[in-house]
Amino acid sequence: MNTTSEKYAFKPYDLRYPQLFQQEKARLLACLGLDCSIEHIGSTAVPGLGGKGVIDMFVIAHSTELAPYSDRLCEAGYELRPRAGGVGRLFHKATFPDSDGIERIYHAHLIGLSCDDYEKDIAFRDWLVACGEDRCWYEAVKRQAAETAQGDGERYKRQKTAAMETILTSALSSRDV
């Protein structure tokens, strides 16, 4: 189990992240049995970008009622973390070993189709995939934040905020063109 200091440690990008996501996506779609879609988000969704190594996913419910989806995620081994969610978002976390026996952390951000975070997070991801300069800059910011935050999650997030806002502004303005 991760300690607090390991939780916000910087890890280099692992070429297995896309495969790990695809495997978990297939497993979740089979477990959910509900009309939904799943998107890979966060650092592990951006080839070459280092970070915490957490496989983050949007589980997009094609319904206004999230409770049945949340219940099924819990049945699939995810723990609902009510305080970690946000407006229109239910946060679930799980840890499973991969084929090499390495414990992998998965986050399932359960949202409805109308969640405002979806468009922003997808734009942010897509921008970092396309813009190597911003990807390298953001990785440096994340590395520095992990080093100086010393396991403090709030401090880690605060140290990344300005860079994230700058990148998001670029990402969203490129979509308006």
Give structural notes:
This protein has helices spanning 4-7, 17-32, 67-75, 116-130, 132-149, 153-176, and strands at 36-41, 55-61, 79-80, 89-97, 103-112. It has a five-stranded mixed sheet with strand order 1-2-5-4-3, sandwiched between helices. Mean pLDDT is 91; it is low at 1-5. The chain is built from six helices and five strands; from the N terminus they run ααββαβββααα. The longest helix has 24 residues, at 153-176. The chain starts with a helix and ends with a helix. With 177 residues, it is α+β, with helices and mostly antiparallel strands. α4 crosses α5 and α5 (132-149) runs antiparallel to α6 (153-176).
Mean pLDDT: 91
The rough form would be described as globular
Rg is 16 Å
Low-confidence stretches: 1-5
Tell me the number of helical segments per DSSP (H or I, 4 or more residues long).
6
Number of strands: 5
N-C termini distance: 45 Å
Sheet with most strands: strand arrangement: 1-2-5-4-3
N-to-C order of helices and strands? HHEEHEEEHHH
Major beta-sheet overview: 5 strands, mixed
Class inferred from helices and paired strands: alpha+beta
In helices, the fraction of residues equals 40-55%
Strand content range = 15-25%
